[in-house]
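New to this. Please check this record:
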Amino acid sequence: MYCAVPTLIWLIGIRKMPESPRWLISRGRGAEVPAILAKIGPQVTLPVVPVTDHQQKVAFSAIFKGGYGKWFFFVVAFWSLQIIPVFGIGTYLPTIMAQLGLTGNLKYLGSAVVNCLYLLGLIPIFIYLDRAGRRPTLIASFLVRSVALVILTLTAKLNLPFAIVLFLFVLFGASNAAGGSHQFVYPNELFPTEVRATAVGAVTSFTRILSAVSTFLTPIVLNRFGLQTMLAICAGVSIVGTVISVMMAPETKDLNLNDAASLNHKITADSVPDQHCDRIVDHV
């Protein structure tokens, strides 16, 4: 019942969502585009987009061709490395709190507070995602949560005070929430319109499977190897995410969708575009 209500609201609200201007153009319905752009905002522009044959079908394998396989791996990697620890820790947080020495109602209170304060991470990301860019904010989110998890791993047997444990878990969760915003940005910017829906769907499927596996394995690791080992694995996963982000994350904040989807061999991961391009609002 509780899940059905927001789903119903979403189904009603989505009926008012306009079609993607690029999708309309690809289907020969370009005359509808100006009205949609006007609704989005007066500063929103759409450069000339080649009109393609709307009967043309794109094969699933297209998401791995033309250099897009690299971006598919990058998105699957950073997305998976974000959600594996958060699903494992978040699902069993009261048990983890108890093993850290928080007995009685403290383990439930701590879990409730931590889950509520995860949303704090959305404040800085709303401010800095477009200002600082996608690349530095993704790296920073992985780095902060890695530090929090490393400290929790090293102090797992020390029975730290409630406030410190709470702070470290909030730091982990908030930084993960901030980094999670990239799951809605990078996939839509790195893949062109003709393969975007297929690529995003495939990425989401892979990450959902991995999140289910991590949720299933967490209690097994806790029982067989202990809390410290489980936290060490989560810390290791976050560190790997930091490394992959440093090595692969591109900067797309000053690129329109045409240029962002053509990054494959034009710029390296640590380069920054020289000129500012009009931002384009588009959706899957």
Q: What stands out?
A: The chain has two domains: 18-53, 63-260. The two ends are 28 Å apart (CA to CA).
